[in-house]
Amino acid sequence: MADTPQAVIDERVKDVSPWRKALIRPELGGIIGTVAVFTFFALLAHDSGMFNAQGILNWSTVSAQFMIIAVGACLLMIAGEFDLSVGSMIGFAGMMIAIFGVTLGWPMWIAILVTFAICMAFGALNGVIVVRTGLPSFIVTLATLFILRGFTIFIPQTLERKTIIGGIREAAEGDWLAALFGGTIGRPFFQWLGDAGVIGVFDRGNRAGEPVVNGVPMLIIWAFVLIVFGHILLTRTRFGNWIFAAGGDAQAARYAGVPVDRVKILMFVFTAFCATVFATCQVMEFGSAGADRGLLKEFEAIIAVVIGGALLTGGYGSVIGAALGALIFGVVQQGLFFANVESSLFRVFLGVILLLAVILNTYIRRIITGER
Amino acid sequence: MADTPQAVIDERVKDVSPWRKALIRPELGGIIGTVAVFTFFALLAHDSGMFNAQGILNWSTVSAQFMIIAVGACLLMIAGEFDLSVGSMIGFAGMMIAIFGVTLGWPMWIAILVTFAICMAFGALNGVIVVRTGLPSFIVTLATLFILRGFTIFIPQTLERKTIIGGIREAAEGDWLAALFGGTIGRPFFQWLGDAGVIGVFDRGNRAGEPVVNGVPMLIIWAFVLIVFGHILLTRTRFGNWIFAAGGDAQAARYAGVPVDRVKILMFVFTAFCATVFATCQVMEFGSAGADRGLLKEFEAIIAVVIGGALLTGGYGSVIGAALGALIFGVVQQGLFFANVESSLFRVFLGVILLLAVILNTYIRRIITGER
Amino acid sequence: QAIDDDLSYIMVSHAPDSDAWWNTIKNALNLAGEQMGVNVEYRNPPTGDLADMARIIEQAAASGPDGIITTVADYDVLAGPIRSAVDQGIDVIIMNSGTPEQVRELGALMFVGQPEYDAGLAAGQRAKGDGVESFVCVNHKISNPVIADRCRGFADGLGIELGSSMIDSGEDPAEIKNRVMAYLNTNPDTDAILTLGPTSANPTIQAVEEMGLAGDIYFGTFDLGAEIVQAIKDGTIQWGIDQQPFLQAYLPVVVLANYDRYGVLPGNNVNSGPGFVTADNIDKVEELAGEFR
Amino acid sequence: MEPTVKPIVSMKDIEKHFGSVIALNGVSVDILPGECHCLLGDNGAGKSTFIKTMSGVHRPTSGEIFFEGRPMSFADPRDAIAAGIATVYQDLAMIPLMSVSRNFFMGNEPIRRIAGLPFFDHDLANRVTMEEMQSMGINLRGPDQAVGTLSGGERQTVAIARAVYFGAKVLILDEPTSALGVRQTSNVLATIDKVRKKGIAVVFITHNVRHAMAVGDRFTVLNRGQTLGTAERGEITPEELQDMMAGGQEMATLEGSLGGTV
Amino acid sequence: MEPTVKPIVSMKDIEKHFGSVIALNGVSVDILPGECHCLLGDNGAGKSTFIKTMSGVHRPTSGEIFFEGRPMSFADPRDAIAAGIATVYQDLAMIPLMSVSRNFFMGNEPIRRIAGLPFFDHDLANRVTMEEMQSMGINLRGPDQAVGTLSGGERQTVAIARAVYFGAKVLILDEPTSALGVRQTSNVLATIDKVRKKGIAVVFITHNVRHAMAVGDRFTVLNRGQTLGTAERGEITPEELQDMMAGGQEMATLEGSLGGTV
Ligand SMILES: Nc1ncnc2c1ncn2[C@@H]1O[C@H](COP(=O)(O)OP(=O)(O)OP(=O)(O)O)[C@@H](O)[C@H]1O
Ligand SMILES: Nc1ncnc2c1ncn2[C@@H]1O[C@H](COP(=O)(O)OP(=O)(O)OP(=O)(O)O)[C@@H](O)[C@H]1O
Ligand SMILES: [Mg+2]
Ligand SMILES: [Mg+2]
């Protein structure tokens, strides 16, 4: 086996041009879409401020939100399941933080940690029910969607007689853990950029002289960290291989010794984790938790993931692709505002992009995997 | 083959008691659920007016609404697909009728017929895309969900500068087709019941002396007709057999000569038809079309169907079951109001019922079909 | 509270479960119920679908209460059920939205509230007086026809076309914030912002703060909440239109109970709003914002 | 192979490519009425692909099909069924969630008109199903029993009974006995014999030489997409057939190469 | 069957019921180190079920399993793999959407620590995969080629190469040759021979008698959930084996019953 002539391998590899090989990858659809979307808006809205510092921060923040939940949804979808309760989980998590931190007055870091624990437990419950009963995750998580949303409205209603609980920012003042989810970083650098004239400064109002962008929001940092984590987990670790295997063919994976049930449950937990990160950043930034937060976010996450090239039935996809899908989603959504397009048409655009993306991705996937 | 002793057959049939055989059927879960739900509310809300004429009419009407869309969703689900665009289709259809009939001032029957044609064309488009591209119907109809909702907001916004269009009842006055969707029938009978004191009568206003329930709404008639039609189509016709076959195993059905693609597309069209019936009844009854009509109805339809024992992945289910699922849904929703339960808990109930129902149904289905 | 006559009233709103503003209504309703010694119930369509609301009114009528308190969010949809209830002998009071003519036509006892369009109009007129010539209306529930009336009224009060001034902001706070920022970036000559409730106001406050426009841009909002009150104090928001939801829920219960017990009835409708809450009169509001204010 | 009888189906030079896979590389076979034509071959030899081109599932990449002497081109299985070619597929064309009688009549539902409207004649369907299954030696609990509750062998038998019942001119059986026990196998082979005697042509795919020898009139062996020729009963011994199927000479070389362990 | 060598795996009186289906009805087999033990039998005889109880997929309904003399009870396939029982399943344990090298190392991913954290060692995985596949005679375009683009035979070969590479004490092959062409079959049989000579026990399931005879040391025939006994090489002729597999006597009766057509 050691005397295998390396030449033979090289000879075969030449069959496919390196160019084509580099091109044909799961993220290709996402990359093409991203380029198309940016070109489109560069032409349509180049003079609208969409591509100055403030504009970039604008669509980056929206995209980062989508990315955070898309990473969880992506890994879960690759593991062969999906989760419709993400949106309700976001509302629920925010409300729990508000109730623990404001209504009950616990230190914010305890409130956040306990909320993470509760939400991840719900995620695990989703997973355990799906794995144990063999029911489709669509149904199980649809039930969770309703149950969590019900609690999100019922609990504050009963405890506080309101469905928006504010004062979270004040309660989180100076908390070490809360600081990880709210605020911005890199302020001095942006101040310097502003002074140097690279980015604009406010020329009126009470912040005149400050740069228009005064730092990178923690939300974007979280999105970045989760994408890197998800990408490395998926492509560079043993567990990542198990995720692919569990979604590709659970039975075959089980035979090969992959602990499929554990993988799926953990992915449900991770999805819940991402939803809770989203919720925590949101309540820290906006200072209040509302019972209607996160509506329809589950669909937005799934759409971003599917635009990014993942297969709805599992076993195939890429975190980078999902992130690009989220970027496309965010840029299109905000770009239409910059381009001054009637905003209710956004949904029509979204539907059309989804269809086109999924057809393109199917084509690319068939080339890669030799599906019939 | 003619000399087969009939006795032998009879002997075998005895293996399973006729009682058990009559019991173990796809609708069993729905029947058990219905009995349970009625018992529950009879105990909890017997003195709340839930079971007087008006109360019965109330939850019957709500259930009938669910039934209309559940019939379409049920047949489509049995044919192996599902449609997330039902809710948007309802909003869209109502808006189209309003725009044609009120804004453009067409005769109402033309407005209705054109709307049916447009909506069924959208249904067919869903079907054609699913069948041709082989994409999951989840994704394709999710795109349609957004596209239709976008148009439902955009069109009246552009034409009329508002998202609600009224005056439909006036425009439909005396229209022969509109009469099929609005109003009630059986008025003389109910008048008689009222006079006889069986049901309450209005005691003041310009309708004093009339019975509080003055007929059966056309909505309930439609629900009844669609259920009967769907049930007969599914169980008593050749086409019904094809629906089961297409959903059970599309490939095997194709080999056996079943025109699977046609069946699936027709079922998408039928689902669109049901959604349009729903929308037409609604605008005729309420006289206005709003852009928010039908939100989340797709989930409600799917939930009713799944509670009624159908299999999310196709090939198994019953229209009667779906109708019972819709009845359970309607009775629980309205019954909680009668029983004066905090309304936000409705979602929690719904989620729990969904989970329990689907587990029960899975168990029953395994007995019937010998699934492993 | 020895009165033991077991009166029960049902309030049916048009708000989805999660709409925060309606909490004040619920709280005031419960308070009035306690104070008057009557049973009160609050019901609403879970998704805010007005057709579902019509069913709930029918259902409420079927359960035979002594009175129903409801809104006329869409006259076409709700007229039938409300009229049936009235004809059935149930006393009905219209609150929040509707017009005096509609109330009369329906045979309801009275109206307590603030017609949405009129409130918008009044706000628009006030803004016009303050020199506003263009505005953006942040609509967080584009598909809900009721609250869009506020934008239309505002535009008419300013005497300008609504045009594309109303933006569909979605309900996610970050999206609202960033869409407002995007709009203001592309339309830098916008004079005023109108938000339609706490859902859209809170992120918008942050948007103008972040853009350094706080206090600089004319900012008015409907309905109050803790953040809005704070922003009024800070000078970020010029005024909040307070339709005093407390009264909209509290008064009907009191009126109905007294009507049923003693046959007394005020002779007129009550306009609970629009009251403009500004930095000058904010203090009392502050304490109870979101709960009773 | 004297052309005394006119072939009912005649396949000429059939090629079938799936993308880069050449599943059939020029196969010619004649099927005569009333004969049992056995198609043998290793796994992957192309047997299933070959009969699928015959029954309208696949269109051949090149080559011609003659049915009763006329050139034929089936657009889909429905056409082939209508023309009289019934097929029992290897990957059972049975739907486990459906009842036996619904499966039995799938695609050929009997119609009874009530008030002019066509309804599925369940009574007829149920009666026929029970009778046919009994005559195949399978006792159903009832015609509405789901196919999923049957054993693999019973399912196979339903599929065969169905094809036989709809009395085609050509009956194609793709490894009908592969999931069957010995007793059920004997039933199927007896049925094949019966059908053949009615003058119906049977194409019987198997890789069990004994089963083939038991009922076959002629034997065609496929190997890697090509035919190794057709032999008539008596011209060939079971051992020779077995050798051809397993690759004959190549196998011998292989056994040699294992270095005397054989 | 003299107990000179201690069996590495010893299955005693294994029964396995699936609901009402009795798939195994008391099967006892010993596997000796370094032998190639062929398991033969008709379709549905219970071969796959039997080896699945050996590899931890199914728990036997009753009966005992001894591994290296100690009683063993595998909770899931992972345990069996850890103990040294590698299996190539009939329903290929390969995931078509994944690359060859990911499939090759599925469940046994090589780890390289970077900064103390365990990462999947792709370089090692790719190199090993290319080498192993070459040594099995399969030229990949690259280690990241998806298994879905391989032919059925190539996939089977990957599965075997994988099992061989992870060098178990017992290697179970469930019909490894069923999707292979003759040349690839010869490769597999040669591999079995190689593996056996390393002292590894091979359990080789097939229903092709020639393949069994080519490499087998002992032969166990299953029939309808029961064993018809184990024979050693030389004690039995291919024809006898073939007879046993096809049901022997029962088949003879059947041929008779077809009424002299045989
Ligand atoms: N739809 C398809 N797409 C691509 N290749 C296919 C397709 N169907 C069959 N093949 C390939 O064609 C070849 C012949 O397959 P076929 O199923 O006809 O063999 P067979 O003789 O029936 O084998 P078996 O005895 O296992 O049933 C195989 O290599 C198979 O992988
Ligand atoms: N999970 C299961 N549930 C129920 N019955 C099963 C299950 N697995 C196998 N069986 C049944 O057990 C019996 C033996 O099947 P098994 O797959 O072991 O046969 P086999 O000898 O491997 O046949 P083949 O040569 O076709 O692979 C069959 O009747 C089969 O239907
Ligand atoms: Mg085949
Ligand atoms: Mg097997």
From TrEMBL, chains A, B:
One of its GO terms (cellular component) is plasma membrane. It is found in: Cell membrane. The chain crosses the membrane at residues 28-45, 57-78, 84-102, 109-129, 135-155, 212-234, 265-287, 299-332, 344-364. CDD domains: TM_PBP1_transp_AraH_like (cd06579). Its main location: membrane. It is a multi-pass membrane protein. The keyword Methyltransferase does not apply. Coiled coil: none annotated. InterPro entries: ABC_transp_permease. The keyword Nucleotide-binding does not apply. GO terms for molecular function: transmembrane transporter activity. PANTHER family: ABC TRANSPORTER PERMEASE PROTEIN YPHD-RELATED-RELATED, XYLOSE TRANSPORT SYSTEM PERMEASE PROTEIN XYLH. This is Xylose transport system permease protein XylH. It comes from Jannaschia rubra. The gene is xylH_2.
TrEMBL record, chains D, E:
The lineage of its organism: Bacteria, Pseudomonadati, Pseudomonadota, Alphaproteobacteria, Rhodobacterales. Keywords: ATP-binding, Hydrolase, Nucleotide-binding. This is Arabinose import ATP-binding protein AraG. CDD domains: ABC_Carb_Monos_I (cd03216). It comes from Jannaschia rubra. Residues 9-249 form the ABC transporter domain. InterPro entries: AAA+_ATPase (IPR003593), ABC_carbohydrate_import_ATPase (IPR050107), ABC_transporter-like_ATP-bd (IPR003439), P-loop_NTPase (IPR027417). The gene is araG. Its EC number is 3.6.3.17. GO terms for molecular function: ATP binding; ATP hydrolysis activity. It comes from the Bacteria. It is an enzyme of class 3 (hydrolase).
